[in-house]
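Bumping my old thread because nobody answered last time. Still need a sequence for this structure:
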């Protein structure tokens, strides 16, 4: 499933929902997708900062711990942890606790979708 992050008006959002409902009611197939929509481009940009986009790109390739992410991105662990928290709240990434042989457990960050589209018109 892909995730679309974008900017749209409330009216456009409602029209899209009605169109999808009509397709479902008529038996037409509707591709599953997840949308995170904003009314203002500034709000979208505040979610998908350059640092958060880099985090997403890294964990899309393979799950990593926050510590490994911080090393890979050459950033402070606390800053990466805060960004991961925001991405998790928006359900763009997920955290999974696994066994780390000889060291207890480790929490890995991974992408929920392999494809994310950013859409905005100014």
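Sorry it took so long. Here it is:
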């Amino acid at each position: 499933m892909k995730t679309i992050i974008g900017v749209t008006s409330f009216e456009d959002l409602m029209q899209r929902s009605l169109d999808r409902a009509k397709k479902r009611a008529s038996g037409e197939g509707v591709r599953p997708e997840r949308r995170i929509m904003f009314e203002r481009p500034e709000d979208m940009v505040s979610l998908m900062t350059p640092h958060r986009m880099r985090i997403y790109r890294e964990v899309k390739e393979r799950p990593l711990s926050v510590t490994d992410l911080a090393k890979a991105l050459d950033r402070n662990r606390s800053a990466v942890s805060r960004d991961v928290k925001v991405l998790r709240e928006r359900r763009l990434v997920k955290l999974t606790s696994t066994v780390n042989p000889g060291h207890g457990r480790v929490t890995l960050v991974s992408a929920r979708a392999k494809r994310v589209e950013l859409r905005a018109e100014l």
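Residues 4 and 117 are 5 Å apart (CA to CA). Let me know if any region looks off to you.
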